[in-house]
Design a protein that fits this description.
With 314 residues, the protein is α/β, with parallel strands linked by helices. It has ten helices and twelve strands. Strand 8 (177-180), helix 6 (186-194) and strand 9 (197-201) form a beta-alpha-beta unit.
């Protein structure tokens, strides 16, 4: 099988910039395609995640100057955290700083506690999805506006008047946009209309297959192919804790058993061969790209094990 393998991390569990820099550079050295990180401002369990949160896009901008090949992005930035105009400026700048290696994962936001903690408004779910749709329209509209022209948007939540639509990202017409999640209606529709990649995070092969069917149907309804847009890249997030021995795998899996606000997941805990088998099952339902969620930023050996015994088989 042929698959594209990225590494996904959660710095809000406890990682400063130096931890992320060391890990991202090792991701690059080991031959993975990309380094992606969550965009959260608070840990989700009893552990406070010392030394505390790091801002996703500030971190990615720094990593853009300290890496040379890997893709860099978020899974996913919350539309509640930033206004769409400034976010478009930020991502375009980081894309330029990286030489065109940035990807924007954008979602509606879901973890209410971090909003309450940091004074971020957290409207009801329907409004959050309305705002997400407008943000996607604004961000792509700004990036696609030809140089020298202006962009305006008059929506229910955001209004832009004669924006110069600068800076432009390196990637034309836009950096890849990732939309994903388990939602049965609006998420597939938004992916079909705006995204380059649809991601189903951390669920079983059967659940992921159903999500892929929903997004395929949404692409048909919206006339994506008729409009000349390329097919969506289908990706999946996979929680990984593998080892050379069962004891090593269980040690790496220990954080997965700690209670948190995360929804139920379907991790791969075991041997490299078990991970290869699971990725093969996902490939069989159409997955092309994988975001492997690794928890411990100090466990560089976990990266090396996957690079040495899993990547060559893909």
């Amino acid at each position: 099988m042929t698959a594209r393998i990225c590494v996904f991390t959660e710095p809000h569990r406890g990682a400063d910039y130096d931890d992320q820099l060391r890990f991202a550079q090792h991701v690059e050295a080991c031959g993975f395609e990309g380094f992606f990180r969550a965009d959260h401002y608070q840990a989700m369990g009893a552990d406070p995640g010392l030394p505390g949160p790091t801002d996703a896009w500030l971190t990615l901008g720094a990593l853009a100057r300290e890496t040379s090949r890997i893709r860099l992005g978020t899974l996913v930035t919350s539309a509640t955290f930033r206004l769409p105009g400034p976010l478009a400026v930020t991502v375009a700048q980081v894309d330029r700083m990286s030489g065109g290696r940035v990807e924007l994962g954008l979602g509606a936001g879901w973890y209410e506690r971090e909003h309450t903690s940091y004074g971020i408004p957290f409207p009801p779910a329907p409004e959050r999805f309305d705002r997400l749709e407008e943000q996607l329209a604004v961000i792509t509209g700004l990036w696609r506006t030809p140089a020298g022209e202006h962009f305006s948007h008059h929506g229910d939540h955001y209004r832009l008047l004669d924006a110069p639509a600068l800076p432009k990202p390196v990637q034309v017409p836009t950096p890849p946009i990732i939309v994903g999640g388990r939602g049965p209606k609006r998420t597939p529709q938004l992916a079909a209309r705006y995204a380059d990649e649809f991601n189903m995070p951390f669920k079983s092969v059967a659940e992921t297959a159903r999500a892929y069917r929903r997004v395929a149907e949404a692409c048909e309804r919206t006339g994506r192919a008729a409009a000349g847009r390329p097919p969506l890249v289908l990706s999946t997030g996979v929680v990984v804790a593998i080892g050379r021995t069962a004891a090593e795998a269980q040690r790496r899996a220990a954080p997965l058993h700690i209670k948190s606000a995360l929804p139920p997941e379907d991790p791969v805990i075991g041997s490299p061969a078990q991970l290869v088998e699971r990725l093969g099952e996902f490939c069989a339902i159409g997955a092309e790209r994988f975001h492997l969620r690794l928890i411990d930023f100090t466990d560089l050996d976990h990266l090396e094990l996957i690079a040495g015994e899993v990547l060559p088989q893909l």
